[in-house]
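We close this part of the discussion by returning to an individual protein. Part of our work consisted of pairing the sequence of a single chain with a tokenised description of its backbone. No coordinates are needed to read the tokens, only the vocabulary itself. The amino acid sequence and the backbone structure tokens for this protein are reproduced below:
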Amino acid sequence: MTQYSALAAVYDKLNGGIDYVRWADYIEAVFDKCLPARPELVLDLACGTGAMTIELARRGYDMTGIDASPDMLSEAQRKSSEIGNILYLCQDMTSFELYGTVGAIVCCLDGINYLTDTESLRRCFSLARNYLDPGGLFIFDVNTPFKFENIFGSSTYVYDEKDVYCVWRNYYNDKKGICRFALDIFERCGDGRWRRRYETQTEKCWSRRTLEKTFTETGFETVLFTGGYDFNPPAPDAQRWHIAAKAIK
């Protein structure tokens, strides 16, 4: 089973607290701060169920959404049926192909953490640079070392939402910087019965040094490295880093 096969149908319910409007406001603030003009073409890499893709499309951007999970893209396509300026492609973020370059690439909700070795990270960054216009921006976020060590750890979490119940177990190997997530997902069906599905996911804890070193090696210049939407440097206990890099061509 591919990652997010079991989670796709309930992903939006379990992540209902994410403020995509505020996140998109931040992305546009980065555009205004780092580009001479806002881009027309934007790629949403590891777009999942398309929440950010749709939000940016509604703001007028011509969007492409790429994800490796057919199940997640099926949800994205269903939600986007009345929005015309989105193209979805089922591709891996380490081997994707576009029809041309774009002005910006975004990758939200720790998609980069799912690249679990340095070669995959390098391939993704290299492709991002290849498909960006000269001076185009790559904007993404990652879960921080603090979060892996203090929030994920080897903990168990329970999500109890309407018609969805999920037990999320974490297994973190601090020597390898790898966290495995084991998900037991229970979803209420229309006839009142519950359906149980199970899958595992894996994330890599990336250091700031490795991220910036890989940027340099793949032809980027880091322009922002913050701990939130306010452009301030990340605090030691920041759980998410927000990063923007400019393609040097």
Remarks:
- The longest helix spans residues 20-34.
